[in-house]
Amino acid sequence: MTDNDFTQLDMVHRLPPASLVDRFSYLCALAQGRRVVHVGFVDAGCQLLNQQSGAWLHEHLAAVAADLVGLDLDVAGVEDARRRGYSAHAVDCRDIEAVRDLELAPADLVVAGEVIEHLDDPGSFLDGLHALVAPGGLLVVTTPNAAGLVNAAALLGNYEVNHPDHVVLFTCTTLDAMLSRHAWQPVEHAVYLQQVKSDATDARSRLLVTGARAVLGLERLLARLGRPYAADGLIVTARSTSP
User: 93 with 61: CB under 8 angstroms?
Assistant: First the structure.
């Protein structure tokens, strides 16, 4: 038997404690009074929907952070943010040298909200974020939960609920493993419920929205019963272990 031989029991993982939280409130509490770098802040593809529903995370962080810098690949979105008075830079955080060339002051908190699931190489992304965090600072990653109940319910109707640009999904265990491989030590876990923002008009859409809200209600109940990882969103806070 070699070090790479695993039994089926080795595949079973006890999940860490986690609380069900409101994602915006949780992240804003972490950002309160801190120097914050928000990676993927433009939220490309969702700007209009976010503006209509007041769900642009960057705007909420700006209200509480002592200092806030936005980083994103979307050049047009970065330019628009600058015109609106935000400090922002267009950069690919997978490019460590490009991140360092920005010469940003190290951040107390780096927020990578709903980014990692869009990337072909999330490991390179996590490597690049080390250049942004101050000693003792925190990285917080939020991402959809591959083990959440919405898709488990949707598959019964031969549906899948996913942003068209998503290429990978994580569970708590696989996200922790990815972070650890790239010198980030998870220190806190939380879960959140996705929002149903659609204004359904036809019968089919109303049925899908009603079903989604029912499943989200079940997720909330299960969290109260001590089964939080049925929720459809993960939040992991981590510290750098990079020398």
Answer: no
